[in-house]
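Quiz preparation item.
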């Protein structure tokens, strides 16, 4: 039987492995194999049957798949390990899909431990809109770059700008703009992205140019 513990979350992977090892290692001979003591003949003997001094064994491979030569050999031998009465445990870091598929095909028990992706704090696009409303060029530019870095969509940015301009026009709160300027900006921003894309232009550059010209 084959057991795989893989992934970059080393702490949780190690904890799960240690708990599991206690359950399978009773009355079994333990063999540790790494890149430093890799021996093809020994590995073949371990899945072939019992040894002279033990009836059952547990073989632990540590990062053995990182090297191409040893990795190819192991992947070829997985079907034999799967049919063996002995246990084979693999401790590996991140593995690609083809390697994981080889383990699945060999009926391995697979445990993958990945580090959760850090959630990015959502950017407050109303900061961006309020900068425009107060005609604050410096902060508008800073928040525009921060919004791009936070992967805020161009559609969301133009949408919140449209909302802000329309709100100012409806309330007749023109701030540092004239009513004519705001109505002109409303007309431009409503078609900015589809028009630029339809003309084969960079939509981000088009929005950036709009902001610069508005100030």
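Solution:
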């Amino acid at each position: 039987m084959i057991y795989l513990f893989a992934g970059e979350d080393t702490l949780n992977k190690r904890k799960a492995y240690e708990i599991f090892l206690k359950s399978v290692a009773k009355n079994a001979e333990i063999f540790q194999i790494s890149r430093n003591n890799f021996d093809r003949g020994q590995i073949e003997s371990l899945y072939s049957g019992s040894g002279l001094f033990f009836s059952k064994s547990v073989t632990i491979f540590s990062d053995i798949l990182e090297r191409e030569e040893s990795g190819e050999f192991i992947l070829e031998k997985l079907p034999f390990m799967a049919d063996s009465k002995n246990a084979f445990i693999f401790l590996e870091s991140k593995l690609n899909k083809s390697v994981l598929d080889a383990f699945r095909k060999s009926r391995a028990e697979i445990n993958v431990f990945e580090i959760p992706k850090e959630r990015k704090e959502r950017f407050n696009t109303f900061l961006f809109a309020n900068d425009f409303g107060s005609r604050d060029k410096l902060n508008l530019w800073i928040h525009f770059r921060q919004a791009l870095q936070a992967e805020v969509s161009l559609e969301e940015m133009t949408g919140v700008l449209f909302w802000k301009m329309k709100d100012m026009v409806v309330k007749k709160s023109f701030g540092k703009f004239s009513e004519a300027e705001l109505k002109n900006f409303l007309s431009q921003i409503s078609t900015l992205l589809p028009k630029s894309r339809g003309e084969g232009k960079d939509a981000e550059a088009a929005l950036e140019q709009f902001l610069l010209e508005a100030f």
